Each structure stands twice: as C-alpha cells, then as structure tokens.
Amino acid sequence: MTMHKIQESRVIQLDQLDEFPAYVAIYSTSGSHHAFTLSPAAMRWSDNIVLNRLKDCEAFWITQKNKSQCDYAALFEPILQYYFGDDFIAVFACHPWQCLLYMAYQLQQQAQGICFLQSRLNQNIYRSLGWQCWFANQSVLAGHLDDIHARGFNASQFRARQVRLKRFINRIGVAGPFEMNQVDYQAFSRRFEIWLANIWAWSKTRSSELQGFPWVALRPTEPVMVERDLEYPLNQWQFVAVLLREDLKRLNESFVQNDQLHINRLVWCIRLFNHQLVEVALTFRQPYSLHRDAPEFNTALYQARFIYDALIRELQQRDKDLDLPETMPLIAWHIEVCESFELPPMIWDLFADHNVDVVNEALLSLQNKLPVSIDCYGFEPSFCPEQSFSELSICTKYEAQPGDRLWTSYSKQRPLFCYPSVQSLKMFDNCQFDLLERCADDWWRQEDTRGVNRDYYLHKDQLGRASWVYRDSNGGWFKQGEYH
Amino acid sequence: MASIPAQFADPALKQQLISARKLDTGFQARPALCSGITALDELFSTVKVGDLIEWGIPPGLNGRLIPLQFLKRDIPASVWIYHHHGLGIFASSWISHGVDLRRLFFICSAEPVKELRPLFLEDTFKYVIIDAPKKFNRGDLAFVAAQARKQGQIVFLIRHYFLSQKQGNAHARLRLNTWQARKGLFSIQPIKGYRNSKINIPAAVFYDDA
C-alpha cells in the first residue's frame, strides 16, 4: 500500500511564532512595580527593566492562548497594557540575554509595544544588529555578575577584554556580531576570555537554559507566611484540616484580599513530633487564587490532603522498624507563598469575558484539586501511528475540517490502547495473526532506511487475547498495542 | 463552579445567582445514553441519570468498543479513568471510531476514589468511566454510586473479568459482559437489569464510517 501525504500550501507568516517564548524583558518608565505580571519568576535587571521567566508557567499561557483562540501578541498585549499603560516595550525570546539585546535596539528606535524575537521578521532584524546594541547591556551585566560573585569574573579584566574586542572589531571591520558566525565558542573564549564568550553564546543560542546567565530571582520584600505552634500534637487529618483552613484564611488576609494575586506554589513546612522538619510543596497546575477559593479553600486543602497522606505513608515506611507512633503527630507548621504572580481580571473574571466556556473554567479549577493531570488528545495528520495524535491542553478548541476524515478513518483497525514504547517479541510459527495494514516511517529522515516498513497484524495468544503487533523490514517482531 | 468576584459578595445577591449548569436545558428529555445502534439503545433504554452500569470486559477481547458507542454523539463533558499497566491512550483509534475527544478527557489513576475524590464531588463530568481500577472496594463503590445520583452523573464501571451472578452489585442498574466472540461479531450478555439473553451485534456496525 502506497501512502501519500496531503500537501497543503500555506502562506508563511513573517510574524508567526514557531515556539513558546521562554523569557520576556519589560521596559517601562511609568514607575510601575508590577514585576510579577506574566510569571512568578522575575529578575530586576535595572530600574526600568524587569525580566520574567515565562517557561515556569508555559502550560498556563498555552492553555490561555488556546482558550482565547488568539496568537501570543493578542494574548499578552492587553495584559501588559493593563499594568503598564501604553508606555512599555516588551521583548519575548528564548533567552534573557537575547531579550535584552533586542530591547537595546527597540530603545534605540524609540519603539513601543511588544515584539517576539522568534518571529521570522524580528529574527531577520536581530541578525543584522550592530555592535552598539551588543555592548549596550554589558555594563549592567557586569554589575550583576559582580553582585553574585560569579566564578571567574573580574570586572576590570572584563572591561579590558571588552576594549580588546572593540579594537579587534575595528581592525577586522565587522559590522555586527552575527557576521562572525564562523567563530566558535572555544576560540572566542581563548581570545577574549570566558564571560565575553558566554555573552557570545547567549546571543546565538536556541536553548532556553540560562547557560551561566546571572539570574537573580526577585523576591517579595517581605515573605508572605503564617506560622502555627499547636497546643497539642495532631495526627488526624480532620483536625489538621480545620486549623489549616484557618491559616489559609490568615494568609489570604495578608494579601489584602487581592483578586489579582495567583499562587503557583505554597510551601508547607511541618515540624513532626520528633522535631524533624519536613518541607512539602503544594503546586498548582493552574494559577490559584486564594481569595476566590475563600472561605472553604477546598482546592488548597485537597492538595494538602494528598501531600499529607503521601508524607504519612513515607514516614510509616521509613520508620516501620522504629518504636514510633504509627501516624507521626505534627506539633507545628508554617505555610509560605513561594511563587505567585498577578493576573488581570480579563484572564480570570467570568463577567469580563463573555466568550468564556464554563466547562473549561470548571476543568481548570478541577485540575488544581487533583494530584494527577487531566489529559486531552487531538489527532495529527499522519499515517504513522506514533505521530497520528498529540496531547493537547484541556482548553484547546478544535473544529473538524473536511479533510480530517481521510486521517481519522485510517485508524479503525487499531487498538484503543498502546504502549509508549514498543516491546520486542519472539514469534512462533503456529501463532495466529491477521494482516491489518502496512505503514512506513519517515524514511527521508533516517540514515538507515532498511527497517522503515512495518506490517501490522492482529495477534491472538492461546487464550484468545488480541494484541497489535508489527514486523519490520528486518524481520523483527514488536508489540505496540492491546485490544482491550 | 467558577468563583464569584468580590464586588458580588453581597449574600442576598449570591442567593439569586445559581450555577448555569443547574438550569433545565431540556437535556433530560432525551434518553440518558444514546449510541445510534438499535440493539444497544434498547438495552440501555431504562438507564437514567444517576445510574451506575457495571461492565465485565476481560483484556484482549476488544469489548470496550461497546461502551465507546455511547461517547460519540452530543456527549457532555466526560472522563475516562484508566489504569492499564504500561498502556496509554491511542487517541487516533478513539477518534476513528467517532469518539468526540473534545468532550472526553482521560485520567490515569489506579485508585480513582482516593486520588480523584474532588472529581466525584462536583458535576464537571457527566459521564464517568472507571476502567479496571487497581483498588476499588465496596466503600468506594457505594461512594461513587451515591455521588452519581447526587451530581446527576452516569458511571460506567469496567471490570477486567467477566461478571457473574454469584457476586452481585446492589448499586448497579445494569451489569453486562461484552466481548468480541469472533471476527465480525460482538456479544453482550446481560447479567442484571435486562432479560438474560445474549445479544449479538455484527462488527460492521462498529467499523462502518460514523
């Protein structure tokens, strides 16, 4: 059977994003203190520039994008305008240094608004930037490296290497950093030492890893925490829950009942009967509003209950040889908000958005109460079994297209359940199997094309249980699914 | 249910605001379960919202294609809770059978009542399919059945063995065994809640284009 892939012609959008931006740099002179607008992870780069690490809540923003059926620009711009007015510049990129580099160019151009470095248009401009932009933020960077006492960094030596590099650039006559793409990291670091080489690498990297970038996490001026010393030890959840609810209420009141504050992670530090300190994290898949969960705080209590049960099981397992109480009592604890950020009402207020789907909102809320994720799937246009579907965010809206039937009708003979990785089998001659289909891998992407074909069979064992197996071109047998 | 913002915190106003999902949308006028297959719809005609149906579907006999027929057309938000050792969902196969994956969600859990208790305490999902749970005792069964009545859910409880009348289930309205008897034929054997005669359905009914 010959497979043909349907070719679709499409216009290449110059501002189309291929991937989620991991970082954003926000410049504003309005004096706004909203450092935690898009993420709970922020760094104060300078008086007017804040860096946010978006990849810490990537799933949330992708869900919001799918829910709103818009692009990232339409998603983020209203939020930034809400907090910063019209006087801001926001640069989204995969690395914080690239955000800052492009920010220098935007400031030079006296631009306003948001731009995504991953878009093709901005990538073209980025690669044509001159040395002025490249050196623009290095003095601030040197200040941060000095503050954290970065290993191997010496401010005066760094400045000397910068001067040497500038002399080199003038002598060679290179207009911009990206005209030296042939230079590799080792050569650069030998000539101009490691920190300029690091800056060089950050400018070109496609990875969202910091790679030595001095990320100095911005912390709230005062940690938001409530403490409790119990009057008597407790070892039953029904009593712990009552007191925990009171503490969550105190925590909520310390935020002055701010609707916009959303929590990603709470830390619950417990002191056990034997004075051992145990720290557990209550992590929320969707940003959690303590205020809107009042007065019951069910979401936080559900998470705390799961954590508590897991902790007790672990302690019982660890201490089963010791003569300790079966359920280790607690004598004190404190709860601290570790990660939080602000979300404007347009994101969470049902009355602000008439297009919101009540079921999706309920799903997001339920997701926060469960210790496991709620999975959602959609099909992908591929005959290859592994590539014929993908996991989606639970708010993804998809409307069936006329051409979908070609792909979706192809999988009827396949089982409902499959193994994440295939299992090799030894086949015997007297096994019963029925040929179902032939499928070919993406042979044009492989160096060895000998094993690309797969012949799928329905295989029944002696008890009549059916499995989905295939034989590749090399004659090897593998099991990929079960007909449960 | 989504929370009410602070500006609507007035208790008198709160009492007048009710969840939109509790409004009568006429959904109850239709049969609770509809597959589009005459024999199946007749078998499930007495099922109403709040019922629990127990299925005996041993592994490897393709029997889950039958409960799948009720997840195709105009379904409410539903969840399939599974724990098949080492296996994941082969979503393209579900889609090819006409299952609406925009409304059917999946959760992998071996102890659904213990791990997913909040799910049963609210009405987000109207169809709940509990597929071969590793731990599911009588107390869990009673809890799930009671919550189904309270939240207006329909629960499918799938066992990985054939059911028999020797070990009953007082909470289930229907108990039946399903399997693919041979190539081209599916069989359903009601154990409780319907006349005790086997129903055979040609496989072509399930494999024809939806």
Topology of helices and strands:
The complex is a heterodimer of chains A (484) and B (210).
Chain A: E1 23-27, E2 42-44, E3 49-53, H1 58-68, H2 72-84, E4 89-93, H3 96-108, E5 113-116, H4 120-126, H5 131-136, H6 138-147, H7 155-172, H8 185-192, H9 194-204, E6 225-234, H10 237-254, E7 261-272, E8 277-288, H11 298-318, E9 330-342, H12 345-348, H13 358-369, E10 376-379, E11 389-392, H14 404-408, E12 417-425, E13 432-440, E14 453-460, E15 466-472, E16 477-482
Parallel strand pairs in A: 4-5
Antiparallel strand pairs in A: 1-3, 1-4, 2-3, 6-9, 7-8, 7-9, 10-11, 12-16, 13-14, 14-15, 15-16
Helix pairs in contact in A: 3-9, 8-9, 10-11, 11-13
Chain B: H1 11-16, H2 38-43, E1 52-56, H3 65-68, E2 78-82, E3 88-89, H4 91-96, E4 104-108, H5 112-115, H6 117-120, E5 127-131, H7 138-151, E6 154-159, E7 174-182, E8 185-192, E9 199-202, H8 204-207
Parallel strand pairs in B: 1-6, 1-7, 2-4, 2-5, 5-6
Antiparallel strand pairs in B: 7-8, 8-9
Word description of this protein:
The complex is a heterodimer of chains A (484) and B (210). In chain A, the strands form four sheets. Chain A has a five-stranded mixed β-sheet, with helices on both faces. A five-stranded antiparallel β-sheet of chain A has the order 12-16-15-14-13, with no helix packed on it. The N terminus of chain A is likely disordered. In chain A, helix 3 packs across helix 9 and helix 11 runs parallel beside helix 13. Chain A is globular and about 80 Å long. In chain A, strand 4, helix 3 and strand 5 form a beta-alpha-beta unit. With 484 residues, chain A is α+β, with helices and mostly antiparallel strands. Chain A folds into three domains: 182 residues, no CATH class; 129 residues, 2-Layer Sandwich (Dna Ligase, domain 1), CATH 3.30.1490.100; 70 residues, no CATH class. Chain B has a single domain, classed as Rossmann fold (3-Layer(aba) Sandwich), CATH 3.40.50. Chain B is built from eight helices and nine strands. Chain B has an eight-stranded mixed β-sheet. The chains are: A alpha+beta (484), B alpha/beta (210). Chains A and B meet through helix 11, helix 13, strand 10, helix 14 and strand 12 of A and strand 3, helix 4, strand 4 and helix 6 of B. Strand 12 of chain A pairs antiparallel with strand 3 of chain B, so a sheet runs across the interface.
